[in-house]
Amino acid sequence: MSDDDYAIESTDAGASATIPMEAGQIKKGGHMMIKGKPCKVLSISVSKTGKHGHAKCNFLATDIFTGKKYEDMIPSTHGTTVPIVNRSDWEIIDIDDDGALTLMDEGGNQKTDLNLPTFPDTLADEIRDAWNGGENSVMVTVQGAVGIEQVIAYKKESS
Known about the structure:
By secondary structure, the chain is mainly β.
């Protein structure tokens, strides 16, 4: 038997895209999963304990990728899931006619699997206008959670 018989195809630490958390521990401005969507919590109202003994948390949140509002009610002692949200800054190298982006980070790594954002409505046009403006480089912030990545902001960098 050679070493090739035991080649490892990929390296994955088995990290989950979400972590479990008690509903009562989630704070305003934090993140949580509602109906399978990663959401940012806008407000929380807690009802008093009833005859069955559980205070209920009523969450109002928006999807971090689409802006759609969601509501959820969970007993404060019950578990829910919180998405692991990452943000990173990338410089725009190119924008195709169909909106596909070519990005590069500080380490010189390239990313070609993202398009101009569809939410909010004007962000894609603003990024394209800034890019077409020429002289300055344009940096975008990419937010990722539960296997989805999307451009959420941009800024012009002076050269």
